[in-house]
Amino acid sequence: MNSTNEREGFSERLQQALKNAHYSPDSPTRLAREFNIRFEGRPITVHAARKWLVGEAIPTQEKLRMIAQWLGVPADWLRFGGDAGAANGDGGNASARFESADVKLIADLQRLDEHHRQLAREFIRMLVRMNHQK
Fold first, then answer.
1. What InterPro entries does this protein map onto (predicted)?
2. How many angstroms separate the CA atoms of 44 and 82, rounded?
3. Fewest Cβ atoms nearer than 10 Å: which of 6, 76, 78, 123?
4. What are 84-132's pLDDT values in tens digits?
């Protein structure tokens, strides 16, 4: 695949992942803001986010992994395409794949303030422990 097609394919998958997580695929400003909130490295500009959305550029691997984690999609799918729900035979991280309802839940969790996010995490851990004790 040539680099233009790779960038366009990435752009389409990024837009789909944003839609599935209930973010607008049409707002580079929002993408840059949401990305910069989560990314510990150097922040991106709105111009960089726009280039990702319109298929003019692909983020670095580090940035791509963070976007995939944030949006609840496999990084390999976001970068290269293919079946996001298929089982990875190469030992890939199956827990990185979520139902769309799970992606929405994660997006909602990220919208909470830190105190409420911590309460939600503790509640989920408690439910997991209770489930394992059955």
1. Cro/C1-type_HTH, Lambda_DNA-bd_dom_sf
2. 27
3. 123
4. 554 333 334 444 445 556 666 777 788 888 899 889 888 888 888 887 7
